[in-house]
Amino acid sequence: MSLTVFTQTAQHERFSFHGNVNVGKDVTIDELRQAYHAVVLSYGAEGNRSMGIPGEDLPGVFSAKDFVGWYNGLPCNKELHPDLSCETAVILGQGNVALDVARILLAPVEMLKETDITQNSLEALANSKVRRVLIVGRRGPLQIACTIKELREMVNLPKVRADMLPADFKGIAEVLKDLPRPRKRLTELMMKAVKEGGDDKAEKCWGLRFFRSPVEVLAGADGKRATGIRLALNKLEGSGESARAEVTGQTEDVDCGLIISSIGYKSIPIDPAVPFDPRRAIVPNEMGRVQDTAGLYCSGWVKRGPTGVIATTMNDSFDTARVLIQDMEDGKLDLSVNKPGAKAITALLQTRGVRTVLFSQWEKINAEEEKRGRSLGKPREKLLDVDEMLKIAWS
Amino acid sequence: MSACALRVLLQRAAVMRKAAHQTFSQTRAFPQCVTGSYTYSRGINTLTNSLRAEEKVTVHFLNRDGKRISVKALTGESLLDIVVNHDLDIDGFGACEGTLACSTCHLIFEEAVYKKLGPISDEEMDMLDLAYGLTDTSRLGCQVCLRKDLDGMILRVPDVISDARVDSEKESSTAPPKV
């Protein structure tokens, strides 16, 4: 979402933003429910699914969540210091996040320089020795989870060529014509990359690798860091979106010094009083109404799971809003009782020594980041330290 | 978690991805009606207001609730500009502000009008692929500019997935790949 869309909503007279509050710790959901007629959980998926394989904790292995957090300036990832001195990086997963990571690893620095990527990561990437990025998926080309825009950005990357395995695409050309348009265009673009490859003279390359699942991260002789990954080779049972990867027993080792696991984000429970389904990692709900909990709703990834683009998630939020309004009109929400709202919560936070950040204060942080960016020719230079942000907000 | 609490507005992965992603595509996203740098803020289209001659054309939007919204707009404006500049009541239209990073400005044209429109780029097709209710006469509003010969055209605002009971696993085969 763009800043100006948020700004319009944030400036609405009946909207107020209270940042710097850790819900579940500084204030409980029950306290919020006592203060408001309805509470909506819309906190997304900040955790990540882990591969669950030996060696996953070795230096050199990162979750995409942390790697993306690092180049995007999330304060908790600023000390990541990924070692980019190896030639090959392997990314597990083939969704849009995986393709984003590959693009950032291989894009010419001239392209990155003009974005709001953090200065630290820009310098690290400028000195990166990574020349080859493999993006690995369990199933086949027809099951790839990314969308065409992200794939096209990889195909169009200057000074980078595609390195695919034609064998992975056996039988695909024959079924193209029967595919629905989005899947068809996506597959055609992949086939084009297989055939054409791109600039032969390019120093850097990327490739998709299919029918492979990670089984172990391999460490070098000293056992101190990742030097490779063992992949199990799969075969596909069934077809289309519901095809399943089955083990064959065969494995293959790939030398690499950087491994990024991009197999999905995961919501975490916010408060013990809120029902949580640990298997699906979502808040159990019926059309956005949290199970067995009147006056509590959810929307977005914490409601449906961590998939979906802007339109999907935005429309889902509209759905939850419509359900909430319906409940008001049907009397399912008891509006006869007066609720104190923000007054009660800010008073509570004050007694607990929690100082909030208002939207106008957040705008000072925003202005400072844009100011710092201007001298570097970037849209913004992100602040990486929360204490520094708070100082500016409350100045 | 607490160290990141301040990023609560921007913390969703979809947005985090977009931060380093958006500026690559920004410079390629503008249709031919917009030249030079483009400052976009809701309600103000500084470029077209200052450069374009006053050529007014009537456009009708058939909204999701069945109501028709008619506006007189300037040639050269994109259909997204028109919705924004006239503050039309269309939910969630133009979420990415014309940077070809979403499909929320999806509009359905009458067949005869569709045939008169300019060429569609791969990038626009890529985003249209993700639009719900895609038709053979669908375009993204941010990529289509108003011309005199489009006077009186009727644009249908397509429905979006609004039934939350639809299990995403059971979406039709025309649904886009999951991300």
UniProtKB/TrEMBL annotation, chain A:
Enzyme class: oxidoreductase
Catalytic activity: 2 reduced [adrenodoxin] + NADP(+) + H(+) = 2 oxidized [adrenodoxin] + NADPH
Keyword Mitochondrion: yes
Membership in a protein family: Belongs to the ferredoxin--NADP reductase type 1 family.
Entry GO MF terms: oxidoreductase activity
Principal location listed in the UniProt entry: mitochondrion
Gene Ontology CC terms: mitochondrion
Cell compartments where the protein resides: Mitochondrion
This protein's name: NADPH:adrenodoxin oxidoreductase, mitochondrial
UniProtKB/TrEMBL annotation, chain B:
Record keywords: 2Fe-2S, Electron transport, Iron, Iron-sulfur, Metal-binding, Mitochondrion, Transport
GO cellular component, one term: mitochondrial matrix
Subcellular location: Mitochondrion matrix
Cofactor(s) required, per the database record: [2Fe-2S] cluster
Family membership: Belongs to the adrenodoxin/putidaredoxin family.
Gene name per UniProt: fdx1
GO-annotated biological processes: negative regulation of epiboly involved in gastrulation with mouth forming second; P450-containing electron transport chain
GO molecular function, one term: electron transfer activity
Protein known as: Adrenodoxin
Lineage: Eukaryota, Metazoa, Chordata, Craniata, Vertebrata
Domain 2Fe-2S ferredoxin-type: from-to ranges: 57-161
Pfam families assigned to the protein according to its UniProt record, in alphabetical order: Fer2
InterPro entries to which the protein is assigned, alphabetical: 2Fe-2S_ferredoxin-like_sf, 2Fe-2S_ferredoxin-type, Adrenodoxin-like, Adrenodoxin_Fe-S_BS, Beta-grasp_dom_sf
